[in-house]
Amino acid sequence: MRKLIYGMNLTLDGYIAAPGDDIGWSVPSDELFQFWSDQLQATDLSLYGRKLWQTMSSYWPTGDQQPNATPAEIEFARRWRDMSKVVFSSTIDEVDWNTRLVTGDAVAEITRLKAEDGGPMDIGGATLAGAAMRAGLIDEYVLATAPVLVGSGTPFFTALDSWVNLNLVETRTLPCGVILTRYETRR
């Protein structure tokens, strides 16, 4: 059975985007960028909601060809482009870059994917991750908490019907002030 990991950058007050999908508060440091690149390398399959997919696919397929790309960005772009991805959406018709589109029941498909043999999967996008969270499918949460408050926006966590008990696995502070925390779901 595969492990499902939900991780993103978020503000101290719990938002992955400020109003208007503004993520200008989140300018990753080299250390934070390397952390996410290492996470990507350890991932076998990435699951995306439409909005995050459109953000990622608008830059990373050619991110390694940008004139000011750092070695870490070049490595990340190549990893991202080559890895298998699934996008869940009922509003787009096609995807590319080693990606499969699912237009049906996301929870049913994620449940099926988790039951397969294979390495870890990550999930991104607040709506998609929220559905997986409510269905009890997330095994690990990875939070990169930035020292900023935005007041409102798109929350990292969704409203739940019942508590989810967690075990702290790791905490570390990066020189840029971001605190990385990892929690496993206690089952």
Give a quick precis of the structure:
With 187 residues, the protein is of the alpha/beta class. The protein has helices spanning 30-41, 50-57, 71-82, 106-115, 126-134; strands at 4-11, 15-17, 45-49, 84-88, 99-102, 121-124, 140-146, 154-155, 166-173, 179-185.
Write the layout of secondary structure elements.
Elements: E1 4-11, E2 15-17, H1 30-41, E3 45-49, H2 50-57, H3 71-82, E4 84-88, E5 99-102, H4 106-115, E6 121-124, H5 126-134, E7 140-146, E8 154-155, E9 166-173, E10 179-185
Parallel strand pairs: 1-6, 1-7, 3-4, 3-6, 4-5
Antiparallel strand pairs: 2-8, 7-10, 9-10
Helix pairs in contact: 1-3
Protein name: Dihydrofolate reductase family protein
Organism: Streptomyces scopuliridis
Kindly provide the radius of gyration, computed on alpha-carbon positions and rounded to a whole number of angstroms: 16 Å
End-to-end Cα distance, whole Å, is 14 Å
The number of distinct helices, counting runs of at least 4 residues, comes to 5
Approximate strand percentage = 25-35%
Strand order of the largest sheet: 5-4-3-6-1-7-10-9
Query: Mean pLDDT score, rounded?
Result: 95
Shape: globular
Encode the helix/strand succession as letters: EEHEHHEEHEHEEEE
| Biggest sheet features | 8 strands, mixed
Q: Supply the helix-strand structural class.
A: alpha/beta
Helix content: 25-40%
Q: What are the segments in which pLDDT stays under 50 over at least 5 consecutive residues?
A: none
Number of strands: 10
What brief labels describe this structure?
globular, 10 strands, two-stranded antiparallel ribbon, 27% helix, 8-stranded mixed sheet, 187 residues, alpha/beta, 5 helices, Dihydrofolate reductase family protein
